[in-house]
Specification:
The structure is a homodimer of 106-residue chains.
Chain A: H1 3-10, H2 13-24, E1 28-29, H3 30-35, H4 41-53, E2 57-62, E3 65-70, H5 73-88, H6 90-104
Antiparallel strand pairs in A: 1-3, 2-3
The first copy, chain A, binds a DNA duplex (30 and 30 nucleotides) through residues 12, 14, 29-31, 39-43, 45-47, 63-66.
Chain lengths: 106, 106
DNA sequence: TTAATATGCAACCAAATGGTTGCATGTCAA
DNA sequence: TTGACATGCAACCATTTGGTTGCATATTAA
């Protein structure tokens, strides 16, 4: 559950699209997720493994099928612990930059 | 200002550390940023270029120095447009999973 | 003017990444 | 039981990535 794994998992557009797909319909199987993409099943498997390692999805084995469920907790943690910090500094950072630019171009 | 560039820029721990450093002290020069790391100046230059392309930092040339300023706007956009979507679904997703698990293990 | 300083550019390299193909395993249904 | 279906595993490949070294350019200060 390292934050780095979450960031790296989110870096790939295909993986974000997989999360989107699960957000649209939770609990999809591997084959169902493959139908919404143009790559091979094995490629999707690898992406899902990375998402699962980052704890962004949880899987439930159901017979010969494997269902994939979104886990929004890591995204929430990033939002709170990391993004919040930069959002808080937003106004001051912008005003700093403005002041600096004004000083540079008098 | 594509969202993909922002996600990819945030994927690297060194680049997040650079953002942290700028969050701690805004407007640092390349050399100042280099002092807080163990890699070469050229490596840091590359990371800064990626951050700048993602619009996460803005630079101001000041003589022979170049100052780097945090731009929290893209992070804020990701938080609002992308993360918010998944946070909203948090409770329902978790309850979905719980129901599913209960069904699987009666 | 000259030397030191701050940054820029380009070639190069090893390792990670995203993808493929081929085959194996396990489960359901006829 | 047997065939079809869903997933798993492993080897392999091209490209991207993160890093280096070496040299070039521009600005400040003595």
């Amino acid at each position: 559950m390292s934050m780095d794994a979450v960031f790296r998992a989110l870096a790939d557009p295909t993986r974000r699209q997989l999360l989107d797909s699960l957000h649209h319909r939770n609990g999809q199987t591997l084959n169902a997720l493959c139908e919404r993409t143009d790559m091979t099943r094995q490629a999707v498997t690898k992406h899902l493994a990375i998402l699962e390692e980052a704890n962004l999805i949880t899987t439930v084995r159901n017979g010969r099928e494997k269902e994939h469920y979104l886990n929004p907790v890591p995204i929430n943690e990033i939002a709170e612990r990391w993004i919040g910090k930069f959002e808080r500094g937003r106004l001051t950072a912008l005003s700093d930059l403005k002041k600096r630019l004004e000083r540079e171009e008098p």
